[in-house]
Design brief:
Radius of gyration: 18 Å
Low-confidence stretches: none
Number of helices: 5
Largest sheet: 12 strands, antiparallel
Structural class: alpha+beta
Helix content: 10-25%
Number of strands: 12
Strand order of the largest sheet: 1-2-4-5-6-3-9-12-11-10-8-7
Strand content: 35-45%
CATH topology: Porin
Shape: globular
CATH architecture: Beta Barrel
Length: 283
């Protein structure tokens, strides 16, 4: 999938005032990519809101999405308040709910401002492309495991620590990538937020696997996103580089928790996200 196809993926078909339909794209995982559902659901919610921007979303993944079936997004207009607007989105395939999302939108307001500092890391220039590293890793795997690693993705990613990307050795529960959508995009803030929601699902769950020497997609490993929350702090552009700093503070009871922060090239914190995923090794 290329960036143009990703933009088409987020351009939902409007079936009724609060009813939308989205197509699917396979990134080599077999099931619908969670980031796709996040981005599409946020776009559906945003299309029912005027003059306010999403500042947070909270979502649950209930069933795997099937590639062959379009996804219907039903938007509920929960509240239109003086400063905030709330929307609930239910994603359905053939009558079954696969995903739910609540999103809050806010009108622009001034207020207190502070942030944590961006980690000191090398810039994206000179770092290897994640796709090239994936393809090289795929060549060392059995043929049935290569499709996921070999798929072309619409988001360009450059890992700050390339040697640890696909190694099966124990490592600290932290990883960092520079990410961007390599295309000239419009100034539509709703689109940039949906694209960042899409990109936030890449590699996120794998952060909790690093201390255990396991990689996403390894034989016998059952892994699935359970929930995903996101907060948009400041304006940003996804066609410019953003640093995605991920860490996992805990894993227990077959679940791994991951926390991420996005910074623009100037060190400004633009978004944060939290995800818990199922990580279970089957015998």
């Amino acid at each position: 999938m290329n960036p143009e196809q990703l933009l088409n993926l987020l351009d939902l078909e409007r079936l009724d005032r609060d009813l939308f339909r989205g197509a699917n794209q396979d990134i080599g995982a077999g099931a619908v990519f969670g980031g796709q559902v996040l981005g599409q659901a946020l776009i559906a919610a945003a299309r029912t809101v005027a003059d306010r921007s999403a500042h947070s979303l909270h979502s649950y993944f209930l069933r795997p999405g099937r590639m062959q079936v379009p996804i219907i997004y039903q938007v509920e207009r929960v509240r239109d308040g003086g400063s905030f607007t709330t929307r609930r989105v239910v994603a359905v395939q053939e009558g079954e709910v696969i995903f739910i999302l609540s999103a809050s939108f806010q009108q622009d307001q001034d207020g207190f401002s502070h942030q944590i500092d961006m980690p000191r890391v090398p810039g994206p220039e000179g770092l290897p492309d994640e796709y090239e590293l994936r393809v090289a890793a795929a060549e060392r795997l059995p043929e049935e495991q290569r499709a996921f690693l070999s798929a072309v993705r619409p988001v360009e990613m450059r890992p700050v620590d390339p040697p640890s990307l696909w190694g099966e050795v124990r490592a600290e529960p932290r990883q960092q990538f520079w990410v961007r959508v390599p295309a000239a995009l419009s100034d539509d803030g709703d689109l940039h937020r949906a694209l960042l929601a899409y990109a936030s699902d890449y590699y996120f769950m794998g952060t909790a696997l690093r201390p255990h020497g396991r990689r996403f997609g390894a034989p016998g490993l059952q892994a699935a996103t359970l929930d995903h929350a996101m907060w948009f702090h400041r304006e940003f552009r996804t066609d410019d580089w953003l640093l995605y700093d991920m860490e996992s503070p805990s894993a227990s009871s077959a679940r791994g928790l991951n926390i991420g922060h996005f910074y623009d090239p100037g060190g400004v914190l633009v978004a944060s996200c939290v995800q818990e995923g199922l990580i279970r090794q089957r015998s």
